[in-house]
Each structure stands twice: as C-alpha cells, then as structure tokens.
Design brief:
Elements (H helix, E strand, L loop, with lengths): L1 E10 L2 E11 L4 E5 L6 H8 L7 E6 L2 E2 L5 H8 L2 E4 L11 H12 L4 H14 L15 H13 L5 E5 L7 H18 L2 E5 L3 H7 L2 E6 L2 E6 L1 H4 L5 H7 L3 H17 L3
Helix pairs in contact: 3-4, 3-5, 4-5, 5-6, 6-7
Length: 260
C-alpha cells in the first residue's frame, strides 16, 4: 500500500499539486486520471521520488519516504518496477538483455540465475520466441510486453506505469491492460497507472483517483463512476456519447433492481 498525505508541489509560482491525499491499495490497479495539466504526471513522479514534495508525506507500507536513510531509499527502489510511456528499451540490446538489465545492475544473481528468471518473465508475458530479437524487430505491443517483463523481473512490490497504452491500437491496449491487471493480482503488487485512456479505466479500474487542476476531485471504482453525481468526473468521463449511454443504462438497471 502507498499512502500520500496532503502532498503539495510547486514549480516557481505555479502550484501543481494542492494538498492531495490518497491511498493506493495493494493487489489492485490504481489509476490516476485527469486532463492535461491536472497534475497526474507530477504526482506519479513524486511517488517515484523523481520530485520532492514541498510538503506532505508519502509512505510505502508504513515506511515514510522522507524519513528513510539513503541506503533505505536504495533498498526501496529495488522494490519498484516501472513501465515507461515509450517502453524505454535499449535499442542496442536484445529483448533478453533488456529484461535482464535490472538484475545485472541491482542483484547478485549468477548468469544462469538471471537467464532462468528472464526466461520465466518473458514466458509470463507470452514472449516465447523473442529473446534474441532487437526492439526494432518487434511490434509496439511486443515492446510494451518486454517493458512489463523488465519491470517485474525483480519481483517488485510496487509497479508504476506511465500511459502504458500510448501509441497502441485498441485491441493491443486491451491485451496490455489485462496483462498488467493479471500480474497485479497474481503477485499482489501495488500498481499505480497514469492514464488518460477511459477504456483502461472501465476495464481495470479497481481504484481511480481523478485530479483536476492539482486537486483530488474524485476517487472511487469503475463501478462508482456510473453512480456518482460528481460533476467534474462526469464531465471528464462522459464527454463520449458512448459512456453517457452506458451510464444511463446502468442507472436504469440499478433502479429496476432497487439498487439506486
């Protein structure tokens, strides 16, 4: 579990995060959503330790980040996996070498142990025959699966994903969403996803944190979205006529069942 309490962050005269408090649950896919400029990317980078908050606290399973020593912070970073928006694979390395990179850098595993672990995670993301290919030789969807494999190769407790569906077609996006969700449940990871993809929200949104102008404007589950009367989240989600129709249908169904 990751807990943020009253986080504030400014850049010069611009206050980007304005006292955000939220809990990101273990074993669930926690999505941060919001329009461009809402502060979601800054919040993600603050959780990762890239930015230092001006005030407030961040704790990882009770460990307050600001109170940790440098050694303890290094240890914490080994518990974190990251899937970058553009996959961020090394072009000069094979798929196998890319995935094994964190183990070579941050573990004392032998070559045979690294190979065994790399083989395992590549099989887990269904890349059975891509070991010796370069990133340029595989599709965008496969590159994203390589990035996920690299992110989980160290058995992380915390998984961060920055726009994991960026640049992917809708069908491949669903595959990536489901893979992240499956891995989250399977390994009981605290997963935090920065996304603007409403299909991802509706597909795997166990917990949703909606930011607007640096404030926490709404939080809940994908089911809660269909029932909320919060105008901010309604305007954001239901800008699509499709989602408006889905919401109306859900409200009618709940009324018929006496669940409204």
């Amino acid at each position: 579990m990751i807990e943020v309490v009253n986080i504030e962050k400014s850049f010069g005269e611009s206050k980007v995060l304005k006292g955000i408090s939220a809990v990101f649950d273990t074993g669930k896919t926690n999505l941060i959503i919001g329009q461009s400029g809402s502060g979601k990317t800054v919040l993600l980078k603050t959780l990762l330790g890239i930015y230092t908050p001006d005030s407030g606290s961040i704790s990882f399973d009770g460990r307050i980040y600001a109170d940790l020593s440098l050694e303890e912070r290094r240890d914490l970073r080994t518990e974190i996996g990251m899937v970058f928006q553009g996959s961020a694979l090394f072009d000069s390395m094979t798929v196998e070498e890319n995935v094994g990179f964190p183990l070579r850098m941050f573990s004392n595993k032998t070559k045979s142990e690294i190979k065994e672990r790399v083989d395992f995670v590549l099989n887990r993301v269904k890349l059975f025959e891509a070991h010796h290919k370069k990133p340029s030789e595989i599709s965008g969807g496969m590159q994203k699966r390589v990035a996920i494999a690299r992110a989980i190769v160290n058995n992380p407790k915390y998984l961060f994903c920055d726009e994991p569906n960026s640049g992917l077609d809708p069908k491949t996006s669903i595959v990536i969403d489901n893979l992240i969700h499956e891995i989250t449940l399977e390994y009981n990871i605290t997963t935090v996803i920065n996304s603007h993809d409403m299909n991802s929200v509706m597909e795997i949104g166990d917990k949703i944190v909606f930011l607007k102008e640096g404030l926490l404007a709404w939080e809940g589950t994908k089911k809660d979205i269909f029932k909320t009367d919060n105008e901010a989240i309604i305007d954001f989600v239901y800008s699509s006529n499709l989602f408006k129709k889905i919401r109306k249908a859900q409200l009618r169904e709940d009324k018929a069942l006496g669940l409204e």
